[in-house]
Specification:
Elements lengths: L1 H20 L14 E4 L8 E5 L3 E2 L2 E9 L9 E7 L5 E9 L10 E8 L2 E11 L12 E11 L3 E13 L10 E2 L3 E5 L1
Parallel strand pairs: 2-11
Antiparallel strand pairs: 1-3, 1-12, 2-4, 4-9, 5-8, 5-10, 6-9, 7-8, 10-12
Length: about 190
């Protein structure tokens, strides 16, 4: 019995050393958990494309692109835009998730989302209906077009803005009555 008590004591001591060496099971780190804060979002308004996001996220945040309705155009076929941001603060994490607006009548869609090869702070987005189908009208106040995930890279703040943006009709001509909203700010602390 005395031998088993010595082995048990040795194992207990070894386990205690392992637990202490690992920081007590908490991941070995006493760091404060980082989080992302979003500000500057605006409610969708008729004939306006806006950015929206929740108030906070742990290490990533979902950014949604909304189309406010009702729209004056009933021929909305697609959207194209760049999102510009500071790549030292956040980065896009694929895949993008298509919203229900452009395919609400069962039409097929094509979506392309990716960083500009020469500029990691520019995300190029295009989403359109496919084939010989007509356009749509946004009849309700808020239509989600696409959802994008951004991950925090380093402490800081960045403004995310639309550039090179257009909503197009079924002949791929810009619809001038639909505008793009104000930027929003994402801070990673």
């Amino acid at each position: 019995m005395r031998g088993s008590a010595i082995v048990r004591a040795a194992l207990t001591g070894t386990l205690a050393a392992i637990i202490l060496g690992c920081g007590g099971g908490g991941g070995g780190s006493n760091d404060v958990i980082s989080h992302l804060l979003c500000s500057g979002t605006s409610a969708p308004a008729p004939d306006q494309v806006t950015l929206g996001c929740p108030a906070t996220g742990i290490d990533s945040i979902t950014l949604s692109v909304h189309l406010g309705g009702p729209t004056t155009s009933s021929s909305i076929y697609g959207l194209k835009f760049d999102l510009v941001f500071d790549p030292s603060v956040v980065q896009f994490e694929p895949p993008a998730m298509e919203g229900g607006f452009l395919k609400k009548d069962g039409a097929s869609t094509i979506m392309q989302v990716g960083p500009d090869p020469g500029n990691p702070g520019r995300l190029i987005v295009a989403i359109t209906r496919q084939g010989a189908v007509g356009g749509l009208q946004a009849s309700s106040a808020d239509q989600t077009v696409i959802t994008l995930l951004f991950r925090g890279i380093a402490t800081g703040s960045t403004t995310i803005t639309f550039e090179n943006a257009a909503v197009v009709d079924s002949s791929l001509q810009a619809i001038p009555s639909i505008s793009f909203g104000t930027p929003l700010t994402v801070a990673f602390n």
